[in-house]
Structure formats: structure tokens, C-alpha cells
Amino acid sequence: MKRANAPPWLGLVVAGSLAVGACGGSEKSADAGAMTDGEAGGTVVVVDPSPLNWLSVTWSTMEELVRVDKDGKTVPTLAESWDWKDPKTIEFRLRRGVTFQDGEPFTAKNVKRSFDEVQRWKNPHPPGSFLNFDQKTQLAVVDDHTVRFTFPAPDAAALMKFRGMHIGSTKFWDTNGFVDRESGTAESHW
Description:
By secondary structure, the protein is α+β, with helices and mostly antiparallel strands. It has one domain: Alpha-Beta Complex (Dipeptide-binding Protein, domain 1), CATH 3.90.76.10. It has helices at residues 9-15, 54-61, 108-119, 158-163, 170-174; strands spanning 18-19, 28-29, 33-34, 66-68, 74-76, 79-86, 89-94, 99-100, 138-143, 146-150. The strands form four sheets. A four-stranded antiparallel β-sheet has the order 6-7-10-9, with helices on one face. It has a two-stranded antiparallel sheet with strand order 1-8. It is globular and about 40 Å long.
């Protein structure tokens, strides 16, 4: 059931989410028909009209380069590993074999597109600007599975910020990403 006041991007979040490893079972869906092991099908629409719960919905339907484990340690998720090249430069080696729900393979270009899209916003993170990357931060695609971020100054909170950097597929961003259709912006509609 879709509520009229639910943000329209919530359904797109799921469509742009990543499936890490094989998922799914031999279940049937009215939208997708019969599915086989490892095959994604149908669209899950998450409806949570509370403006306070957007983050838990996004963290449950999208992936980031890193997450925090049960012990509070930062661990790689879409990244296989990272290496600080110097105090202002971090390089991520990306996980191979990851596919978005829409079938697009995950590569460095998805990280670049997601970063570039969010960097256009004045305040991309509703919890606070402390999660925003400096506007002068640069992201270089080294190869299909490596990206390098260069900050204008050392950033002790960088790994925490990567925890809030959700990676979307090309289709996710091409169909408005997080942008609210009514306001035409991704800001201030959470």
C-alpha cells in the first residue's frame, strides 16, 4: 500500500539497491513471476512516511563503501579495502562481482556518479553538515575497481562520511535519485 505522503524516492531506493552476493530464493511474486535461486525479481516498495526514519530505510536498501560492525569498527562493504596514500588521499579497492538489483554491474563509475550527484547539493545529509564532504573534495576513477578521494585538507571524519555515502545504479540516478518530484530538489524534503 502506498501512502500519499510517502516520499516518491523510497520506491526508487530499492530499485537502485545493491545485491551483495547471491540472494533470493525460489519464491513467487505477482510482479516477477517465478524466481530461481540467485535471481532478483519484482520491486519492493518501502513506505515509511516519518521524516525521521529515512536513514534507516536507506541503510536497509542501499550499500555504502564501508559500514560499522557490531563492535563499532569500520569494515569494508562495497569496498574490499582502503589505503591512506597520504593524510589527504584515500584509495578504495572495490568489491568485484556485485550487481545492482536492476542488473547493472557495480564499478567505480557508480561510486563517481553517486558522489558527484550528492556533491551538487548544498546540504546532502539531513542529520547535519558534519556528514558532508568538503565541496573541494575530488574523486578520481583509477580503474573499474579503484577510486581515489583527495580532500583539500586532512579529514578525520572521512570514514564516517563514507558510511553515509549511498551508492546508486545509473538507473537510480537517471530516474531522479533522491530528488523529490514536487520540489525538484533532494534537499529539505526528508
